[in-house]
Amino acid sequence: MLNISNLSKTYLPEKKEALKNIHLQIQKGEFTALLGQNGAGKTTLINILAGNVLKTAGMVTIGGYNLDTHALETKRIIGIVPQETGYDSTFPVYETLKKQSGYFGMRHNGATIDELLEALYLTEKRNSNIRELSGGMKKRFLIAKALVHRPKILVLDEPTAGVDIEMRHTLYDFLLRLHQEGTTIILTTHYIEEAEKLCDRVVIIDSGRIIADEPKTQLMENFSREVTVEFQFDFELELADMAFLNMYHPQIEEKTRLQLRVPKKDLPKVVHMIAQKNMAFVDLGIEKPKLEDIYLSLIHR
Ligand SMILES: Nc1ncnc2c1ncn2[C@@H]1O[C@H](COP(=O)(O)OP(=O)(O)OP(=O)(O)O)[C@@H](O)[C@H]1O
């Protein structure tokens, strides 16, 4: 669906290398998170796909069309939701979406626009000037604008930044529905829980390079070889009595909870070691690392 090879971008005149030899293949129907710190190169990549920034080297095909030779065709396949909310216009919402449809030769898609306005909670604002929308409404308007031509791929550059929590969850539901209906989605975000909740693949960019690209479950699996295990007892514990567990870094919380860091393969052994000491626990919890921990450990590696 999207094929990026040897993609590089150097901004002149400072010769800032924003992307360094990027390779990325996105299959139809994937929901991919593109993560990276400020300045990692995410927006540059999206702007290249949108045709707003010229690449320095490499090849991009979108839905089989080469971006260099078939720019117009690529625009029909992809919908881009830009990061900035500086989008300003004195035109009304509905009229702008209608005009946007016109660019793609879609003249009778009033029903699609109505549906989008409804799903994005903008129906009441259909006749308002875009300038009068709040930041969060503008974001939703930009999503509608990217979708009026029913693109097969939707790319969103931090769609939920500055959007309140309730509306963020509404957007998650909207994106999940869109994905279920077959749209391929690429999402950049700084909210790791967003990637965790929505995406099935995680690509991490650092200083213009892809440093991780894996199915989310695989990435988490690779990093979750060690888990935190917490045993709850109904009597008070002494750290000195836990020396037999020293290799698992024992810690006592609120006198009755014992926390250990245990490689997964040692879990049965640890339970056995505790049972052998006649320490009957009343509850047991296992905490796997979160995507956030994995992300931080990768970019600081
Ligand atoms: N027009 C430009 N001219 C020169 N340098 C630029 C330009 N646009 C971006 N850069 C630089 O390229 C690098 C990548 O920037 P980019 O905006 O792609 O990062 P990002 O990952 O989207 O960051 P953020 O999370 O802050 O949006 C940064 O060092 C940035 O300063």
Question: Short summary of the structure?
Answer:
The chain has 301 residues and is an alpha/beta fold. It has ten helices and 14 strands. The strands form three sheets. It has a six-stranded mixed β-sheet with strand order 6-7-8-3-9-10, with helices on both faces. Strands 2-1-4-5 form a four-stranded antiparallel β-sheet, covered by helices on one side.
Structure, described:
It is a single chain. The strands form three sheets. Strands 6-7-8-3-9-10 form a six-stranded mixed beta sheet, with helices on both faces. The chain has a four-stranded antiparallel beta sheet with strand order 2-1-4-5, with helices on one face. The chain has a four-stranded antiparallel beta sheet with strand order 12-13-11-14, with no helix packed on it. The relative contact order is 0.13. With 301 residues, the chain is an alpha/beta fold. The two termini are 31 Å apart. β1 and β2 (16-26) form a beta hairpin. The protein contains ten helices and 14 strands. The protein folds into two domains: 2-212, Rossmann fold; 224-299, Alpha-Beta Plaits. The longest helix is centred in the middle third of the chain and has 16 residues, at 165-180. Helices cover 33% and strands 28% of the residues. It is elongated, with a radius of gyration of 24 Å. Residues 2-232 form the ABC transporter domain. This is ABC transporter. Belongs to the ABC transporter superfamily.
